[in-house]
Amino acid sequence: MTNITNQIQQKPTLIKCSHETLIDILSLFIDFLEKKIIIKVENKTIFRIFAQNIKLMGKFNLSEVKTNKEIKQWLDFPAKLYKNDPHYVRPLDNEVENVFDKSRNKLFRHGDAIRFILKDEKGNVVGRIAAFYDEKTSNTYSKEENGQPTGGCGFFDCIDDQEAANILFDAAKEWNKSHGQEAMDGPVNFGDRDYFWGCLNEGFTDPVYNMPYNYPYYSKLFENYGFQIFFRQLTYRRVFQAGGIDPILHEKAKRFYGNPNYSFEILDKRQIDKYADDFLIIYNKAWGSIPGSTKLTRQHAIGLLNSLKPIIDPRLMHFAYHIDENGKKEPIGFFLLMIDLNQIYKGLNGKMNLLNKLRVLWRVKVIKKCDRAISLVFGIVPEHRGKGLEAGLVCSLESQHLKKRFKYKDLQLNWIGDFNPPMMKIAESAGASVFKTHITYRYLFDREKPFTRAKLQKNR
After folding, report:
1. Domains detected in the chain
2. Which of the chain's termini has less CB crowding within 10 Å, N or C?
3. Does a cis peptide bond (omega within 30 degrees of 0) precede residue 187?
4. For the ranges 8-17, 71-80, 133-142, 303-312, which has the lowest average pLDDT?
5. Is the pLDDT higher at 447 or at 18?
6. pLDDT at 12 > cutoff 80
7. How do strand 183-186 and strand 150-158 relate by DSSP bridges?
8. Measured between alpha carbons, how far is 419 from 422 in angstroms, rounded to an integer?
9. Strand (E) or helix (H) holding 19
10. Cα–Cα distance measured from residue 306 to residue 300, given in angstroms and rounded to the nearest whole number
């Protein structure tokens, strides 16, 4: 026992022992709960101590994702978990993998990421998670009131087992702590906020493209661990039909439609680069300074719109401009929507092989399967906020849906943060109501530190 005691006192360590010495070791716990200890009995891990928490580990094995086989298991697990859920739509594997590709994700320049996979005693995958941080976002949160360096965890999927979830959360926490972080948000993305962000809490129906779907028990797993609500992301829904828009919105829109200093137009695919430049100007002014968002480059903006070009419906892409005395048009706002690709991707099992590409082409171009439009982004530059410009953009969309051959029946305005009441009001004025709720949680590593929710933002 003397050797074991010395090992515990020196540093976090691995201890191997027989059943006979187990009771003696347990008697030492009270004196060494501040140490990190792993105890094995007959070469089998049964307890792990992190600070003051003891976690049964006998039936689970956690490992870092490194090999191609482990990457495939990590990608495939959610499809197996949701195989009997008719609502689940598997994201494209390549879109998920791009997040962890250092040559594609620029956040790796000043940050890092890691993936973990959890298996049971039989080697079956029962959970997965990723942990990550980038210095810009971390530093931004550090400067806020009661702030601290904040990393993230995401791509969390797990069986309904708190013990299994805690092991995954512990792994993400310890990794973030080792990289200087003092808190972590989750489930979030190592990248743009409009992808893979939030825990579905209400509205367990068919997910729209780029919005996460999960079982109802996920919120319990997060909250039982100690995560607290940082903000809610609301999805508003409206059925496309004549009427339904607040008459006040129409009155506000008339001020702009009769004013020669303002104009509204839909995107022209023949000038995609021009609209990419307009998008870049508006986005960086409206969203670039928000914590968790990053300013775009021209290359990024052009790449984004060109990647969407095959499925862009110009009637869903609306831009607003201010015209000066010399006739020069300045981009000042946008309301950009797209078809819900999940209606197209359902059943593809995350793969974009040749056969599935033909399926996508058939569904988009021939049978025109998609009848749901979803929001990409809404923004107005700061100097033109508070004038009612949002009314002009909403009514610009309405003017298109009143025309013939407008096939969309369902509009979902997703990712409206509860920290943005003005945008919530716009959605309600447009005749939409809350349909789903996702939650972004935050976990403070210092459990004694006061928790502060996301601060309210000005109208975007």
Report:
1. 2-56 (no CATH), 60-230 (3.40.630.30), 241-408 (3.40.630.30)
2. N
3. yes
4. 8-17
5. 447
6. no
7. parallel
8. 9
9. helix 19-27
10. 10
